[in-house]
Amino acid sequence: MVLSGALRVTEAGARVYRRTWRASVISTFLNPVLFLLAMGVGLGSLVDEGGGGADLGIPYLTFLAPGLLAATAMQTGAGDASYPVMAGIKWRKTYHAALATPLDVRSLVIGHIGWVTIRLVFVTVVYAAIMTAFGATSVLEGLASVLPGVLTGVAFAAVVTAYTARLERETGLAALFRFGIVPLFLFSGTFFPVSQLPDTIEWFAFVTPLWHGVSLCRSFALGIDPRVAPWISIAYLIFWVALGTWLSIRLFRRRLVL
């Protein structure tokens, strides 16, 4: 019953997206190209010629591209779990309408996360194709990096869904992106090795889900050994998926049913 209901919610998300996909064309296709051109090719040429403190051992574009894939998955997952969830709870109240049918809260949450997962597969496959076109990795390794990228995005989607479910006002979402998502994007190893951070805050990067996602994507795409065993990073991201899903179910039930 839960699986059947979840599939219905996922189908509803797909049906809505079929009519609204044009709004995401820029973020899905153009942003990866612009980021890789500006940061990977433009800034990367200066990094490759310069004498910075970090010895990457590979071209900067090659180093950057898998990290951006993980970071893009994080932003996509968090984005789909923030304002759309707030709309379903508070503005459009589509979740109330769904729960007036035989659907239950678990089906609603799992179906929502299922649709976000499908979105993440699409986004990360496009990103992998673009970074392959830029010569940052091979086709097979690029496709391999999709798996940890999707897992990273789902981890953030689950946690942000729970966070959104407890908010009364949307100002909390702006704070989340300003003080959470953006700092993670900048300081979790996407643009430079976290070893370049001060020792007092380097440890913080290691406990962020994005750092583990970046590490996995870079390992899968480039075939380099990560600082942490891959199974540890995978287990850590799965932990956040499970925790976020569990909290989302509890908070949705409290907000929409009780």
Task: Walk me through this protein's architecture.
The chain has helices at residues 2-20, 25-49, 60-80, 83-91, 94-99, 105-133, 139-144, 146-165, 171-187, 199-206, 209-222, 230-256. It contains 12 helices and no strands. The chain is globular, with a radius of gyration of 19 Å. The longest helix is centred in the middle third of the chain and has 29 residues, at 105-133. By secondary structure, it is mostly helical. It has one domain (2-46, 58-256). 78% of the residues lie in helices and 0% in strands.
Beta-strand percentage?
under 5%
**Compute the gyration radius: what is it?**
19 Å
- As for the number of domains, it is 1
**Overall SS class:** mainly alpha
Order of helices and strands: HHHHHHHHHHHH
End-to-end separation in angstroms reads: 21 Å
Task: Give the mean pLDDT.
Answer: 88
Number of strands: 0
Q: What's the story with the biggest beta sheet?
A: none
User: Quick one: overall form?
Assistant: globular
Low-confidence stretches: none
Helical percentage: over 70%
Report a brief summary of the structure:
The chain is mainly alpha-helical and 258 residues long.
List the helices and strands and how they pair.
Layout: H1 2-20, H2 25-49, H3 60-80, H4 83-91, H5 94-99, H6 105-133, H7 139-144, H8 146-165, H9 171-187, H10 199-206, H11 209-222, H12 230-256
Helix pairs in contact: 1-6, 2-3, 2-6, 3-6, 3-8, 3-11, 6-8, 6-12, 8-11, 8-12, 11-12
What features would you highlight for this structure?
mainly alpha; globular; 258 residues
